Known about the structure:
The complex is a heterodimer of chains A (329) and B (341). With 329 residues, chain A is an alpha/beta fold. Chain A has 12 helices and 12 strands. With 341 residues, chain B is an alpha/beta fold. Chain B has an 8-stranded mixed sheet, sandwiched between helices. A 4-stranded antiparallel sheet of chain B has the order 3-2-5-6. Chain B has a two-stranded parallel sheet with strand order 1-12. One iron/sulfur cluster binds next to loops of chain A. Adenosine-5'-diphosphate binds next to β1, β2 and α1 of chain A.
Amino acid sequence: MKQLVELKDLKTYFYTEEGVVKAVDGVSFQIERGETLGVVGESGCGKSVTALSILRLIASPPGKIVGGNILFEGEDLLLKSEAQLRDIRGNDIAMIFQEPMTSLNPVYTCGEQIAEAIELHQGLSRRDALDESVDMLRLVGIPLPERRVREYPHQLSGGMRQRVMIAMALSCNPKLLMADEPTTALDVTIQAQILELMKKLKQELGMAIMLITHDLGVIAEMAKRVVVMYAGKVVEEADAVNLFRQPIHPYTEGLLNSIPRLHRPRGRLHVITGQVPNPVNLPPGCSFHPRCPLAEDICRRQEPLLVELGGGRRVSCWVRAGGSRKEVA
Amino acid sequence: MPRRREAVVPEFEPRSDALLEVQELRKWFPVTGGVFGRQVGNVKAVDGVNFFIRPGETLGLVGESGCGKTTTGRVILRLIEPTEGRVYFEGRNVFDLNREEMRRLRRQMQIIFQDPYSSLNPRMTVGDIVGEALEIHGVARGREKGNRVQDLLEVVGLNPQHARRYPHEFSGGQRQRIGVARALALNPKLIICDEPVSALDVSIQSQILNLLEDLQSEFKLTYLFIAHNLSVVKHISDRVGVMYLGQVVELCQSDELFANPLHPYTEALMSAIPLPDPEYRQERIILEGDVPSPMHPPMGCHFHTRCRYVMPICREVEPAFIDVGEEHFAACHLRKTRQKQ
Ligand SMILES: Nc1ncnc2c1ncn2[C@@H]1O[C@H](COP(=O)(O)OP(=O)(O)OP(=O)(O)O)[C@@H](O)[C@H]1O
Ligand SMILES: Nc1ncnc2c1ncn2[C@@H]1O[C@H](COP(=O)(O)OP(=O)(O)O)[C@@H](O)[C@H]1O
Ligand code: SF4
Ligand code: SF4
Ligand SMILES: [Mg+2]
Ligand SMILES: [Mg+2]
């Protein structure tokens, strides 16, 4: 089986006082074994909720996965028991978050935390697990690992904490690593270290990575394939090279044009007008229509389907992808 | 051990062509510790900064977290007092001004903050936030103030009818526009923009950058633009200064900096930026380790612990910040051999 993960029409909603937030509303995509898939979009578009849904970590209430399937190696995670899920979370799927401090326990040393993960998932004794955690810290490039295992998270810099998080996530040798904005809180020179590390480890360990970020530069550098999300939906999916060469969805195009480029002459920036819509009150039809320069009548009335355009490209847009064609599952 | 510097910059007359000039600026924050709460050291947040800005120009200050950008901006405005150094605004040292003189000067220098959420008082209406300074400085009140506020909201692209609303009713980008309107209220000459777009989404970021550019040409504003994102800084700035551990290590024309970086830190910083182009592969210089603590900056060149060109002299003597030609300043012992080809 080539596909490691298959999301089919996933819907995750939050039932809040203001109304129903359709955080993820019919998302489908696949992740192949060993590939890096980038998921990009502005804040609130549903990236994190997608990842948390895969791990079945949506707080309920207020959240609920209300539809779809999440196949992992062909088996639907939505049908698993809590015990089975714990097993999968530790062994097959691991996740790292934006702010490492909030996901590390301040009262345990780094070594203890990594060792615990190892003990749990590899069935080693405490002593062996602690030895192994030194090796893990060395693997993620922490200098003087013998000393660092005895230190607490607050004694480390942001970049080092993220390395510890990666060490913990990798200690179970997962098939899928989900990284949610892993470098957003870091400085660029530290980000460069972490991205380099992730590339190296991926090559050595061969896991698939689902990389979530709003930074198109990070996506271009890391991902082979890219999914662009807007207001809870996938609006475009493509091979990274094609996406950056020729974006098709007006939102993708607008995003790419609105970032200042280091190696291009300065000029006036392109602007996407308006703002991201209120999630409890999405515009009818295509959610992007109030901001779209190409919008036509039909866009305001009817939602475009995600249409396969060949070459692994999928786009949902009436104008650019002839929304009249049938959706290809 | 006494500090060795390559050359001591003498106190010199402020440049006549500068709106703002910063000379040898230092801000050390005392650190206390132990049972008696005695001072055990200093955080050298700003440790010898030099630059100037010409009227109508945008000077960008870029650097990693904690290198002293915000502190520099706040000391210039005297929101915190300096430890040492001089800041000349139109030729007068602002640290020599008395309270009343400083109050008058404040009208000329304004600031826009990074966080559009915490920088606006949630209990004040947008009209009061934007109009507050007009009243404090006795510029306008009552109906006149109201009219001026409406004009300002319009100028920054907000609906003037929304003056009665509260900040929480606006999105991040709109709140940043409110911050811009507030800064414009007194017709300042200089606006210090401290990471004005860092908290914003890409599509909103470009709206604010364009707005700042439009306002600059309309009102002949001068900007000190502080940010950690080099692409953004390059886009908006005429000249750019690069900071590392409390110092400006390189400063020159924006295009020149990117075409011909002289300082090894600038070079590494630029190579670290992931470019939004999967087909472009650049040589990447990975800096080892972290930025040292500003409590104990390395002897000699502050960057020597991470520099791949480090020489023995770098560990002992602090390089001076020198113009190597055509106003391209750099603080590095290598500059003589790395001058423009
Ligand atoms: N009031 C203070 N007391 C003690 N240390 C301080 C104080 N304010 C700032 N610092 C320290 O001074 C140094 C410079 O801080 P500053 O806020 O100027 O950095 P910055 O370049 O603006 O960083 P960032 O990009 O994170 O905003 C940091 O080490 C910071 O922790
Ligand atoms: N626990 C929650 N309760 C209510 N709404 C939520 C919750 N978590 C996320 N959301 C909403 O779901 C949407 C998608 O959020 P998220 O996936 O975190 O976005 P991002 O793409 O920035 O990661 C947003 O509108 C967010 O406000
Ligand atoms: S469907 Fe219509 S509104 Fe939506 S992106 Fe395409 S052209 Fe624009
Ligand atoms: S002075 Fe020496 S250590 Fe400092 S940047 Fe130049 S070469 Fe590197
Ligand atoms: Mg998120
Ligand atoms: Mg700052």
